[in-house]
Amino acid sequence: MSVLLGVDIGTASSKGALVRADGTLVATATRAHAVSMPRPGWVEHDAQVVWWADFAAISKELTAGVREPLAAVGISGLGPCLLPVDGADRPLRPAILYGVDTRARLEIEELTRALGQQTILERCGSVLTSQALGPKLAWLRANEPDTWAATRRFLMASSFIVRRLTGSYVLDHHSASQCTPMYDPVEHRWIREWTELIVPGLELPELRWPSEVVGEVRSAVAEETGIPAGTPVVAGTIDAWAEATSVGVTAPGDVMLMYGTTMFLIEVLDRPRRSPDLWGTVGTFPGTHNFAAGMATSGAITDWIRELTGESSFDSLIAHAQQSPPGSHGLLMLPYFAGERTPLFDPDARGVLAGLTLRHHRGDIYRAALEATAYGVRHNLAAMRDAGGRDRRLVAVGGGTRGGLWTQIVSDVVGAPQQLPRQTIGACLGDALLAAIGIGQSPEVTRWNPISTTIEPNPESAAVYERLYALYRELYPSTRQIAHALAQEQRHHTLSDPLSHRR
To answer: Sign of torsion, CA 89 93 97 99?
Structure first.
């Protein structure tokens, strides 16, 4: 039997998997890396040092020990991201990451005024926010004219790897649907008059679906990656959508919660819908549509607390947090440490920890952070319901599901069960599945990662969280003016980033 290779380039790590066509996991590999935050609101990756080096190392490690033939390759990555390259596909600057990078605020305002917010929403499925790629391109053109003058193409994490492997300049339809306001999600094409306004003269990638074969591995990169020349490569997509495919989040009302550096939610819709508080996108396959939502920080906060407290691992913090009761002895946190994406769309929102006394300990603070992300999930699910979503079934994925405490808190806060799949390896499993679909080894509706556990809400804890959620919703508007003033102060200083030099 042949095997499929899937590799995902994530925010904090890259992961790869070798999988047989029946979904059997053969081998996995992981590489940790860090983001760079050279200025407040800027979040970047070096595409050569992080994206390509991780992919090459993972693919070479996995293919070195396999005896079965490699049938196809699938790639996903964090996104939407902006990597400008020159005519020889050399990166011209570090890649500007997805909605956690908030530098294009002025461009968001200018494009919204020029095109009209309601017009953009109706035509593109989303309003302009820090998640949209169009304003990031406009920022590059306005603020780095020399880089822009040398730019011939733009790539994302998955399309950068595909370009290196095959020479094909493509972007999948789902990723394109996050290039607001440049893509029409109903007609599945670039909006030429708006792309000419934002990126005049720039070569646009060919649009393909994530599971479509777009080329074969070239001999020039075969030795570096360990992948035989001639191996088919599919277009790939953004990581969350690859993972949703692998866990069977395909029916209207299915919602995937991705517990990672950020918390990300995808709901499958019965038809295209619009909300100014969410992102409306096309799905992984033709004819599918989604609402997407994302918090700017979740796991990033827990890692910050671990670093701040000097803990070498999360195990000790989790043990302390388990001794803290629901409500964290009266602590309430706003998790807006990097602004907030949906449903606030406020890059100047800031983290708040309210209720501190001298009796609180690290376990209370850590639990308050987990509870804060759970309140954020509930806020986003409410926005989805208000916009016509159903959230009939919640499927939890990602590294944050391990250990049980975080997922239990989320179920208690939202008042609904969560289904956990057997594997927590992530989007690389979905990448391999998309590759299998692309070469005809698997049908589109295939659950390679079946449900193994269900987390049920605890009614006693839910009653506590019902009270505190109401306070959570009051805390942001009560502190917003102060947070915005502090954000303005922060823009006058370049804050050192303790994580930016660690890989």
So the answer is: negative
